[in-house]
Structures are given as structure tokens and as C-alpha cells.
Amino acid sequence: MLRSPADRSGGEPIWQAGGTYPLEGGYFYLNPANSPTYVYSLGFTGAGAPSFTLAAQTAEQAPANAGVGPPVITSYQGQAGTAILWVYDPSNRLRAYYAVPQNGKMVRITLPASPAVNKFQRPVFGNGRYYLASNNGGVYVCLLP
Predict the structure, then answer these.
(1) Which of 34, 57, 70, 127 is the one with CA 20 to 30 A from 84?
(2) 10 Å Cβ neighbour count for 92?
């Protein structure tokens, strides 16, 4: 189990994989329990070793219990400036943000209401749509923003 940085969230547990976006300098995303989603930018030390610096965090927090799905990042045909960060959790449902922080903040994208979901889910994407599985066995289809 990974732990989030103690200086930010008190070392809350992370129950799933992180997400990455390699364009626009490179970013790494983590969803710790009872914490916002943290966004780290890729940099390098003087010796050339990779180094990550906290670049932003979401205003919303994940619930204190396990259940948030992994952060998912999409882009339109790999084009810079089109990346979206997707976060799916049982308490806040589906949230989307521009994947690259703007002035040190994560900017949320307005989405239609999503269904109630089970733990550790993630949206699925294809043909300009995203697909969500609900906790009642349904599948919802929405157009991408």
C-alpha cells in the first residue's frame, strides 16, 4: 500500500494505482482516502534523476474509507491541451478536471449527474462517450465534454 505525503494529508492510505499524463511536462495523480486528489509535476534533479513536486490538488476530498477508483486521464488523440482527469468515488460520484493545473489549481469540468457506484470503479471511454457502471447493474452512456 502506498501512502500519500505526510506533509499534505497525514499519510492517508492509497488503495489503488496512480494515474499519469506524459504530455505538457508530465504529471502523476494520486487519490488517497480522506484527501483531495494530488497532482505532481515531473521534474529532474541536478543529477538528472526524476523528481515529482506537488503542483495542485482538487478542492473535493475522497471519502475516509476505501473505495475511490484509480485516477484516469484521457486526451483527444494525444493532443496537448485536451487532457481530462477523471475521478470516480462512491461519495462524490464521477468528477472531471482539466488534467493540467491552472495557476496551481485543478479546474473542475461540469458533468451531468452520474449514478451511484460501487467501490474502485473507473469510467470507460470510446467513440466520444464515457460509460459508467452503476451499483444497481445498469450501464450509463454520456457524451464526452
Answers:
(1) 34
(2) 15
Q: Tell me: the pLDDT tens digits for 68-93? A: 888 999 998 889 999 999 998 877 78
- Measure the CA–CA gap between 66 and 6, rounded to whole angstroms: 18
CB 104 within 8 A of CB 77: no
Q: Do 61 and 34 touch, CB atoms closer than 8 A? A: yes
pLDDT in tens, 31-46: 888 889 999 999 999 9
Cα separation values, 99 from 11, 13, 15, 28, 45, Å: 23, 22, 21, 10, 24
Place of cell 449527474: 113
Beta-bridge partners for 40: 28, 54
- Average pLDDT of span 129-136: 84
Instruction: Give the amino acid at 122.
Output: R
Question: Model's pTM, two decimal places?
Answer: 0.84
- Domains of the chain, by residue range, sit at 2-111
Indicate if the pLDDT at residue 9 is higher than 70: no
* pLDDT: which is higher, 4 or 33: 33
Q: What single DSSP character describes residue 140?
A: E
Set of cell numbers at residue 136: 444497481
